[in-house]
Amino acid sequence: MSRINTNVPSLVAAQNLSRNNEALNLSLERLSTGLRINKGKDDPAGLIASETLRSEITAISSAIDNARRADMMISIAEGALQEVSALMLELESLVDHTANEAGLSDEEVAANQLQIDSILDTINRISTSTEFQGKKLLNGSLDYSTTGVSTGTTASAISHLQITSARIPNGGSRSVVVEVTQSAETARLTYSGGTLSSGGSIQIAGNRGTEQVSFSSGTAVSAIVAAVNQSSSLTGVSASLSGTVVHFSSTEYGSDAFVSVEAISGTFAVTGGDSSTKDTGVDVGLRINGVEAITSGLDASLRTTALSLDLTLAAAFGTQTALSKSFTITGGGANFSIAPTLGINAMASLGIANVATGSLGRGNIGYLSTLGTGQANQLTSGNFDTGQQILREANKQISGLRGRLGAFQKNTLGSTINALGIALENTTAAESAIRDADFATETSKLTRAQILVQSTTAVLQLSNQMPQAVLSLIG
Predict the structure, then answer these.
(1) Could you point out which of 30, 89, 160, 270 has its C-alpha 20 to 30 Å from the C-alpha of 79?
(2) Can you list the pairs that 287-295 forms with residues at least 24 positions away whose Cβ atoms lie under 8 Å?
(3) What pLDDT sits at residue 3?
């Protein structure tokens, strides 16, 4: 080489050394952070995909945390309801024992009433004191609010309503239209024979039991009606008089209700039934928001993704056809966000009714609070049959609520947590494949970069020494 102003080999070596140093620094950065992408220039497209997946991972993790928090809250409510169920069984035991009037003294009845009052107070206390982080769970604050229902009034079309789940847009409401397509009917038989010409006896059977009634010759139809109605609470069959015609009807509506009137001796022929001696009722036909409801008597249930409810129609409404009733769900309920993407589809909602004694029961038979001292169904009233009906209805409501909460925990929250856990695992794996460094690859790259840096450094040193050979020409 005879030119010394420009050392081209040195420039080439310096350029390669700079490139090799960058590769070495990149490998060191990736190995020290564990990430393949540390800056946007490392992989612009990969960075975009990775950040999107990271956002999804955060949302999935939050949804799992929300579902677990909801499960904790429901567990507290269900635990309190379990104790209420135990108290309900104790109440029924007290009522059943007190019904054995001849075997109990007044003091024992008073003692039983004292226990009932204490249990009722405890149920009310559980209703008002069960909470999760200061939020009351069983006092009705997590039930749905409605307008246009007016249950409990004489003009009510719906005598009982329990909304178990409803998806309501934020700040919005949900309208519910109830349409009767088939009137509910009681079982009904007719006797048109007038005054009995000869004596005899008949057997009357209904949902509650069977009773035999005997008549003498010349018994008027009004006496037949009176005799049947005296045993109505035993049989579930009532009688009414229209002129000289006696109508036997079940006290309840629906296909489970029946009336049977059969002559044991003498002649007593009835008409109008499914057979010569028996008739069954008819369940109400109902559409709720255009969907056929599941019905039994005057009771109806709807189970859809957007709305789930149970209701009982008033007899005056359910025994008509082509009638409709509208009401609005304005809000309320316990709403949980358990999906990664927020919105109404991410919400799981359920209603938790008030379990105070003034809410357990049903208007047509009474409420649990009426078993207390000074109330209509206290033990000294002798209304043991009514008291037992109230208790069984209240127990049915509590057990139904516990079942719904358990199903929500198992089938909604549990399944959601499992599904989200799998989604989190797969999404995290996808993000890792894009962003995380492969240590085996990066280690081999580091070794290569180290060797190249050392070799290019040596080459640069040699290149800088080569122009010194020109001095030999001067000497």
Answers:
(1) 160
(2) 287/178, 287/179, 287/181, 288/176, 288/177, 288/178, 288/179, 289/175, 289/176, 289/177, 290/177, 295/254
(3) 67
Which amino acid is residue 317, in one-letter code?
A: F
For residue 395, give Cα distances in angstroms to 111, 204, 381, 400.
23, 30, 22, 8
Provide φ and ψ at 285, rounded to 5°.
-100, 130
Spatial separation of the C-alpha atoms in residues 362 and 345, rounded to whole Å: 34
CATH 1.20.1330.10 for the 35-143+339-436 domain, yes or no? yes
- With a CB cutoff of 8 Å and minimum separation 6, the contacts of 446 are 24, 27, 28, 31
Q: Is it the case that residue 185 has pLDDT exceeding 90?
A: yes
pLDDT tens-place string over residues 377-408: 898 888 888 899 899 999 999 998 999 999 99
Provide, for the chain, the percentages of residues in helix, strand and coil under a 3-state DSSP scheme, each rounded to the nearest 5: 50, 25, 30
Residue with tokens 């580091």: 446
| Those residues with Cβ within 8 angstroms of residue 308's Cβ, 6 or more apart along the chain or in another chain | 163, 164, 165, 166, 302
Which pLDDT score, from 0 to 100, does residue 50 have? 83
Q: Any bridge partners for residue 214, and if so which?
A: 201
Question: What does the block give as tokens for 305?
Answer: 């993704």
CATH number of 186-280: 3.30.70
DSSP 257: -
**Where do runs of H (alpha helix) occur along 34-139?**
44-98, 106-129
Residue where the block lists tokens 């290149």:
463
Cα 349 from Cα 409, distance rounded (Å): 12
C-beta pairs of 40-45 under 8 Å, 24+ apart in sequence: 43/434
Name the residue ranges covered by the structural domains of the chain. Answer: 35-143+339-436, 186-280
**Dist. CA 314–CA 299, nearest whole Å:** 10
Q: With H, G, I as helix, E, B as strand and everything else as coil, classify residue 281.
A: coil
Dihedral (CA of 52, 55, 61, 63) sign: negative
